[in-house]
Amino acid sequence: ERLHRKIDFKRVFKEGRRFSASGLTLWVFQCGAQEPAQKPRLGLAIPKAYGNAVARNRLKRLIREAFRLNKARLPSGVDMVFAARPLPAKPFFRTIEPLVLKLWTVAKLLPPSQNS
After folding, report:
1. What gap in Å lies between CA 17 and CA 8, rounded to an integer?
2. Using CA atoms, how far apart are residues 12 and 78, in angstroms rounded to an integer?
């Protein structure tokens, strides 16, 4: 349920739509009808400018956990990649999950009423 191959990341960046909120950026690519339906997949592209390895890995863990808890609500055949700019404060799950859900709602992956 993760993007691993470079070609998958390139496709999402090139053909996907971009959404941003509070330092977090989301690229979304809806797979076409020609491809078999697959589970939603997550990719993470957190640059070194975000911070040291500890800070980058913490953010990645928080985003993965938000994805794990909410992936059943996402449509099939969606590839997404998250990137981040440095955040002023240490991120916590209670701040990251609503941000992820907000980006999914703006990207029309979730209906507006489910973002609670």
Report:
1. 14
2. 10
pLDDT at 35: 60
Residue ranges in the chain whose pLDDT is less than 70: 32-37, 113-116
Cα within 13 Å of Cα(113), Cβ side: 0
Q: From the CA atom positions of the chain, what is the Rg in Å?
A: 14
Crossing angle of helices 53-70 and 93-106, in 10° steps, is 60
The answer to whether residues 14 and 7 touch, using CB atoms and an 8 Å cutoff, is no
**CA separation for the pair 32, 44 (Å, rounded):** 22
Measure the CA–CA gap between 47 and 50, rounded to whole angstroms: 6
Q: Contact at 8 Å (CB) between 58 and 50?
A: no
